[in-house]
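Input set for joint prediction.
Command: fold jointly, output tokens.
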Amino acid sequence: MSKLRVESFTLSIDGFGAGPNQDINNPLGVGGTSLHGWALSTRTFQKYLFGNDGGATGMDEDFAARGFQNIGAWILGRNMFGPVRGPWPDESWRGWWGDNPVYHVPVFVLTNHPRPPLVMDGGTTFYFVTEGAAVALARAQDAAAGKDVRVGGGVNVIQQYLRQRLINEMHIAISPVLLGSGERLFEEVNLPALGYGCTRHEATPLATHLIFTRQ
Amino acid sequence: MSKLRVESFTLSIDGFGAGPNQDINNPLGVGGTSLHGWALSTRTFQKYLFGNDGGATGMDEDFAARGFQNIGAWILGRNMFGPVRGPWPDESWRGWWGDNPVYHVPVFVLTNHPRPPLVMDGGTTFYFVTEGAAVALARAQDAAAGKDVRVGGGVNVIQQYLRQRLINEMHIAISPVLLGSGERLFEEVNLPALGYGCTRHEATPLATHLIFTRQ
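tokens >
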């Protein structure tokens, strides 16, 4: 059974999934990059983001790696895809990740503004979905052909799927970082009331890892 | 130099310092007791709360123990003192802790409703302060005679002192528990903007311990 999963989504201690004022120089908002200290050194992130061999192993790596296992499609909010707001002025913005993005599978980008699919190197195609979260999920599950679908974020997109109880499993990392403001994942989302519980809790020197499962 | 400290204040993963609907059967709000799993088994809490010898040692105990070291006075919000709301109907409510409370020093209770001091066994006297947080702090520091003052909570009281940048050091434990609703410590409190940073981060199987220090 194909699952809808959140993986390696990182929050600050004060609950923010991204810093404020995202722009082209701050894809994760101001201060947002500091969130991802636990992940950046791992073997998985070194390989996927930078094409490097090597990198840290251990618990952080285990969590980073599981996020790429058995994933057949991704769903991203439009702000994760890029800093452009409103209608696409042209087709020059092709994501944060260069010609060969980290995904290597179909990626469904939620947006209010239509745009033709964008075929990248390495197996990634970005599809722009204007019909909302439910349609994006149906298309992603279809494309995943039995594998799982990973919701990359951001906060607003994860919240939409949580409120519909559509997420089966969610891995959240809490980094020992304060952002002060930004978008709160747990704002107006009552996880216990939605049937979610914390089913695993592991800590490393760089982060606290939590798994939430829908009961 | 006498410090104002928060110690062993525990939050849920979703950021709540207490559960909703506090009443006489739920001093920490519904579900709030589950927050304190890391603390209840420690040697310090066994001794202070239950008068038992023994209890767990290790990192959780180290954090629990430091919360009682060099403390000359406490400040509590009225809701931490008890479930009574509005004017005191009589003097029958004497706190949650029996005749010999855990404090053993003067305790200043912030309230809008005056009441004479309440002398308990074992060195604890509850003083009811109606002149606000600044006056409570001045009186507590005076009573502490050079030792530190500990702010016990709740959320609202800690926030008042944080916003005034009066807290020098704050130990927060995050338990792997979801509460879903309640009072959020980090709501409308921008710690980095107030000059606070996370200066220590330790994790145990039961909690993530964080120390915040004002810079």
